[in-house]
Amino acid sequence: MPAPRLPLSRFAVAVAVLSAACLTAATGLAKPKAKKAAPTSPAAPPAAPAPEPVDDGVSRIGPIKAFPNGTPDWLVRAAFKCALDYTDEAAGFDCYQKLNVELNRDNDNALTHLRLYSWKYFRQRAASYIVSTEPFTLKVTRRDPTSIDGNSKTVKVFLYSRHRDNPAPIILRREAGQWRVYANSL
């Protein structure tokens, strides 16, 4: 069944509106810009450059090269040090388990689970998350929540890996005023 025809006047209006929209989108001009009036006073000195944003280690996305102490990024870097810098697996695990929340290490079953699952796979895959070794660089693709404050309890940091299709999270929880690893899917 053919589409109903619009009266010619409606059709003409629709074509005109669509043409104007396409022309505006193609040229980027919605309407002619008004000319600026010539300044009447002498030129002002150039403004000072905007201050650099504060690197708080909390809400950064993209390549991360600085890991300020006490921030979630610092904890993530510390976990990678445990996985990559220790040649002895037991010493690396001892380092890693100290970075975890108490719940993950408060009894033998929790430690066994941590060693056999979270630690085992993290240690195997850790090198795939490193963007550069000089300086040490990780690529954060997302944070949830996007920013945190002193009252925040949990943050998910999603990291890029060369060997995964999607970024993987490491979940951090504040415990006794310090960030700790709560869950690690890296």
What does this structure look like?
This protein has 186 residues and is of the alpha+beta class. It has a domain at 62-184: Nuclear Transport Factor 2, Chain: A (Roll), CATH 3.10.450. The protein contains four helices and six strands; from the N terminus they run αβαααβββββ. Strands 1, 2, 3, 4, 5 and 6 form a six-stranded antiparallel sheet that branches. A hairpin with an 8-residue loop joins strand 4 and strand 5 (168-175). The longest helix has 20 residues, at 8-27. The protein is globular. Residues 30-34 and 48-57 have low confidence and may be disordered.
Number of strands: 6
Give the biggest sheet: 6 strands, antiparallel
Order of H and E elements: HEHHHEEEEE
> Structural class, judged by helices and strands?
alpha+beta
Helix segment tally: 4
**Basic shape:** globular
For the CA atoms, what is the radius of gyration? 27 Å
Q: What's the N-to-C terminus distance?
A: 56 Å
Find the CATH topology of the domain at 62-184.
Nuclear Transport Factor 2, Chain: A
Give the overall average pLDDT: 80
Low-confidence runs of at least 5 consecutive residues = 30-34, 48-57
- What would CATH call the class of the domain at 62-184? Alpha Beta
Overall helicity: 25-40%
CATH architecture verdict of the domain at 62-184: Roll
How big a fraction of the residues is strand? 15-25%
